[in-house]
Amino acid sequence: MSSTAPPAPERVFAEFFQLECRARAAKTSETLAWSIVNDGQKLFGFRHVALIINGRVRAVTGVSVPDPHAPFIAFIERAAKQLIAGQHAGEAGIIQADWLDAQSQRDWQTLSAAEALWVPLNDRHGQLFGGLWLARDTPWQEAERLLAQQLGDVYSHAWLALEPRKAWQPRLPKLKILAAAVAVIVVMLIPVRQSVLAPAEVVPLGGRVVTAPLDGVIAQFMVKPNQPVKKDDLLVRFDNTVLKAQADVAERALDVAEAERRTGGQRAFQDADSKSKLDLLSAQVEQKRAELNYARDLLQRSEVRAERDGIAVFADAERLVGKPVRTGERLMELADPRQAELKIELDVGDVIPFPADAGVALFLDSDPLHRHDAQLTRVAYEAAMTPSGLLAYRLDARFVNSTPRIGLRGTAKIYGEYVPLAAYLFRRPLAALRKTVGL
After folding, report:
1. Is there a contact between 383 and 402 (Cβ–Cβ < 8 Å)?
2. So what's the pLDDT on residue 54?
């Protein structure tokens, strides 16, 4: 007893169920794409199917790897963009010729079948990310359209499980791209004021540097940092034990020399030889007197006094007390607290042309929200090593209004000439590229 053939609806349901199972079982997007464009032949009887994902053809019936430069591929991608532009790609439907431009209609006649059905591929939010172009020679029926739409939902779910992606946004027309490029170029040509940042410090203006007057050991600092002083106030006292001994010895040597000269003078009346030695004894007296004056001068220098009114600017007295110093070594600076300037250390890599009286904005580390305005007065021609080990140029600036306290540090912003925005943004990258490639 032979079995009878199942009715047509049952065959359709069996084919649809088999296609759905193959889509769910696909392990890779390539396997799924091959199944989408080939396995539905028995159900729909199409000539060919093209799978479009985000504007690009990913698979075509009977082709293992689509050639992106093939005429048929270019036609399908251009037609899909026109369907989106005409708002015909949101739902499954039979494609009308008047939806496409004249060139696409001619390509359709030569490259594809007469009857084409569009099936969209949407994500869970209803956003289009791809579609199917199904073409055959016989007209599409409404039942087939509904069946293809349902199968498109199955393919969408399977594809997103393998390749999650954003919604399909068609590329901008060439005119819009050109307009955007022109807008970017115009924006890059907008003149902006160039500026650089550099560490800065508030230093005395016209201060008097106090240096060590002799080689010796500092016994005591008589003032504290930032302490106001008057003229002739005692600032630093050196250890004068040796100097006092030298002065005492020089004084006694002078007494001896003067006594010898007096004795020689008395003998000169009776002895001709003693008379001839008077000049030598007088010279020895003068020598000893000079040594005594020098010793007393050194003893007097052991106490360093202020030469002007101001404040004593130095970091730490304990760093020098009890240690030997050389003549001319800096001890402190006497400055007027109402007169200060800004010292800027600009890295050699940040140097730009500065106009005369360029503007400077200082933001102190202790008060970063308050701006202090200044004007550039000097730019050093030669770079020098800073205490931090960087090679930098020194810049000096005068404050315009309020003067911060001497010794405060912060960041200075120095304004240069007006340049195009492109030069402002890409100056450092271009300089680095030039150093790398040698252009």
Report:
1. no
2. 87
